[in-house]
Amino acid sequence: MLAFAAVATAYTCYDFGSLNGGFDRRTFWIGFVRVGFSFIAGVVAYRIGRQPLLPRAAYYLPLILLATFFWPFLWKPYDFLIVTIVYPLLVWLGANAIGSPSINRFSEFIGDLSYPLYMTHYVLLMLLFGGTSAGWVAQNHAALAVPTMTLVAIAFSFLVKRYLDEPIRATLRHRSFEHLKG
């Protein structure tokens, strides 16, 4: 299945030119291909299991991740290599990273924010892009608007996690074990 998903991802990247899509009618199917590969790669990584722990990986893995964000997008196979090799490898290695107690707490905090951020980032991006096209945010202020919106997204994700995600998960967890009590 992973090989099939990789072939589908390669074909999509070749045919479309990148994997940057899934947000409109024309590119909607790209989202299924990208998410499908990532899901299957995650299942494979889980099945492989934990490998020997990596000391100091918590310090250099984020730097590798940041480097992928700033790579020039002029090379056509870039998206394919990043999505099929680099990101799954970073996730798998990160699961085996050893950090200091403070790094581990920070990593757990960021990990807990990942789902609420995933749920809410699109709305915030559309506000930013809509604000730029409507003239609320001048193009020459993007250097200030993007970091500000990033901080707003993180803060909003924390609120969603604290007041929506955690209470819903607690309720569902409680209800799923109620039948065992009686």
Task: Kindly list the characteristics that best describe this protein.
182 residues, mainly alpha, 6 helices, 77% helix, transmembrane helix, membrane, Acyltransferase 3 domain-containing protein, transmembrane
SSE layout and pairing:
Blueprint: H1 2-16, H2 28-48, E1 54-55, H3 57-69, H4 78-95, E2 97-98, H5 101-134, H6 142-181
Parallel strand pairs: 1-2
Helix pairs in contact: 1-2, 2-4, 3-4, 5-6
Report on the architecture of this protein.
The protein has 182 residues and is mostly helical. It is 77% helix and 2% strand. It contains six helices and two strands; from the N terminus they run H-H-E-H-H-E-H-H. It has a two-stranded parallel ribbon with strand order 1-2. Helix 2 (28-48) packs parallel to helix 4 and helix 3 (57-69) runs antiparallel to helix 4. The model has no long low-confidence stretch (mean pLDDT 81). The chain crosses the membrane at residues 28-46, 58-74, 80-98, 119-138, 144-164. It comes from Bradyrhizobium barranii subsp. barranii.
